[in-house]
Amino acid sequence: MRPLKIIVLAKQVPDTRHVGSDAMKPDGTVNRGKLATVFNPDDFHALELALNIKDRIPGTEVTVLTMGPKRAADIIREGYYRGADHGVMISDRRFGGADTLATSYTIVKGIEKLAPYDLILGGRQAIDGDTAQVGPQCAEKLNIPQVTYVEEIVDIQDDLIIARRRLEKGVETVSSPFPCLMTVHGSSPDCRSRHAKKVMKYKYARTNTELSSRKTDEVIVSLHEKRPYLTIPEWSVEDIEADLSKIGLPGSPTKVKSVESIVLTASEAKILSDSDTDIESMIKELIEHHTIG
Amino acid sequence: MKSVFVYCEVENKIVAEISLELLSAGKRLAQKLGCPLEAMIFGKDLKTIKNQIAPYGVDKLFVADDERLEPFRTLPHAALATDILKKQDPQIVLFGATSVGRDLAPRIASALNCGLTADCTILDIGDHFVKKEKKEYTDLLYAIRPAFGGSIMANIINWDQHPQMATVREGVMKKEIIDDNYSTEVVEVAVDDILNEEDFVVKIIDRHIEESGVNLKESSIIVAGGYGVGSKENFQHLIDLADLLGGEVGGSRAAVDAGFIDHDRQIGQTGTTVRPKLYIAAGISGAIQHRAGMQESSLIISINNDPEAPINKIADYVIEGDLAEVVPKMIKFYKKNAK
Description:
The complex is a heterodimer of chains A (293) and B (339). With 293 residues, chain A is an alpha/beta fold. Chain A has one domain: 3-Layer(aba) Sandwich (Rossmann fold), CATH 3.40.50. Chain A contains 8 helices and 15 strands. In chain B, strand 8 and strand 9 form a beta hairpin. Chain B has a 7-stranded parallel beta sheet, with helices on both faces. Chain B has 2 domains: 197 residues, HUPs (Rossmann fold, 3-Layer(aba) Sandwich), CATH 3.40.50.620; 117 residues, Rossmann fold. Helix content of chain B is 27%, strand content 29%. At the A-B interface, helix 3, helix 4, strand 7, strand 9 and strand 14 of A face helix 3, helix 4, strand 7, strand 9 and strand 10 of B. Strand 14 of chain A pairs antiparallel with strand 10 of chain B.
């Protein structure tokens, strides 16, 4: 088997499992600053699948690609700690407010800059939107096949890859030629832990934006001069030659018109006790109204 | 042409339940817009498939009948749908939020360069004023979906790129037969003119579909238990009541996680969405994720020790008490009073 070039798409997401009341802005977009962030769970599964292939085929290279605000550099560092070879960040204020169409356009411009590649892996969906759209949209734009909901790579040959997919009511095994894009289901193996040596090696990995921040120690800056691999590439609109009309809010056809918090409507429930009289009269009412019987 | 379009899923000559729900949802939108309802279906042996679809009020049905189109594969279905949608240019296109629809719809949306809203639970037609352009857009699709774990409902619109597309969750739209003899025009799709070898590079090697025996969605009576049921033994009371009433047993996620009941009986946002005539919730506190899957039941009875349980707010009857006592009493009085 020949070594593969794999790109893992990973997203930093707000931890929607712990949402406060200030999580939404008045315009209906997410107030990301108010939420703790995590590595999107399904993307961890995608990373594991990539690292597993790297274990099986020596020489395989894994690159983590993320798009997000400055602090999304955490995703790249986390990828390094667990075994990724490279990391690239797409970050520019002008990408903000993107829906899935604009996001997939942006990511594809990044992927094209990383080309050639054999396999693109991403999580099935991200917990901040649960849309599962960006993977298939990227595959269409790259004009390559997509294999969604993958839970296991069954076999890899020189020119094709065989994977098992988890569907609602069963499983399906398919083969696809390279290059292709796969989205990975949460039923696949969990991601391995951080590797202590890799944490040591990459803990000072920073983007240039982070390096120029006043908070960054000068020792780290000088370390980057000696060890260029520590500098995480950070790509702007210009770097990926993106069309401004296709990114961010202008490139997003879907817009949030309004959001509504869910308020329970008070109904006029009949409150009953567990006495024989109460329960028998309820049962009689239900029978009378033909709800039961 | 102004129309509402539905992508129908089919397997072994049976149109998927979700697709029939979508046809009804699509028909209601088309009636509001005063435009036709159109549908497309791709599979094999579809000679008589129109009979299953016409009663839902479909004006035009595009059928692609070819051995290679079943089971579903993304590339050929995406190429066919994209070709048809480009030519027909509908306003609205609906897909099921199923493993097929969630795979296919985004690929088509990317090809058509249009917006797509995932996992909608409410669809409507309405207007929107765009301040920047000082312009009122009318007859837009309101694609409404729960977001952030169900704590908010977001209304997503798209006024500048057509078509407006949405995937819709299974079990939330009501099926409605319009006319058993509705006249539907069938258009046979020239598959070979649209597809080429490259659309078939992904091959299905093996496939196992387990037909689940549980049919919560079709049941008009559901007896569901939550964590408050306490034990598998107590769950037996609920099973007895469901059997007696001719209903099905369901459970909240907490009950499934606790091992009281099987996963395929889970009701709620991550399980099945149901809308039975009668929903009996025993020992279910009623987290929003659970309510999202059952709040449209016609009649809700809550049996709970805790008078403050959120589910009581949407219940029609609240019985405050221990379900291990209440449920056997319900069984006893039903047997006594039913004819």
